[in-house]
Amino acid sequence: MAGRDTFQLRFVAVAASAAVLIFLMAGQVAESRMINICSHTAYPSLCRPLVKRITDPRRATHRTIQALEVKTKVALAEAARFKNGNQAISTCFGTFSDAIFNLASAKKSIRKRDVMEINTYLTAAVSDYGACVDGFIETGQVNAVQNVAVDLRKISSNCLTLSTLIS
């Protein structure tokens, strides 16, 4: 009888160990997929915090667009404060407004599952942020609006890359 109880205890211990191992491996696979989704982007360090635990490219793109919209609205308010008398900041004010429209349109395209349209709007947003950055380069200025515009361009580039992974 004692041999049978020992066998049952060993069996339960092995089964529990296997369950824990499977659980840990599944977590590593999910973590690996999240890292892999961001590894496709040009700026993975900006991608990872925005797509925490998301492995689906469609959801990751949507989450990144949402974060980009929020950051762009903050940048738009900042540019509005300083746009008078500064051509580069005035240009950014206009391009940030365009980018907000393009991001909202890209989100609608995600709901429609129209990948080509998503990519079109995100490409336009990348161009909007790029035009803002170019305005500062041409005038030789460096300021807070330019620094934000550079980050927005990087995040929008990541967003466009994530959208290309949607199937």
UniProtKB/TrEMBL annotation:
SUPFAM superfamilies registered for this protein in UniProt: Plant invertase/pectin methylesterase inhibitor
Domain Pectinesterase inhibitor residue range list: 30-162
Transmembrane segments: none
Leader sequence segment: none
Pfam families found in the cross-reference section: PMEI
InterPro entries xrefs: Invertase/methylesterase_inhib, Pectinesterase_inhib_dom
SMART domains recorded: PMEI
Annotated protein name in UniProt: Pectinesterase/pectinesterase inhibitor 26
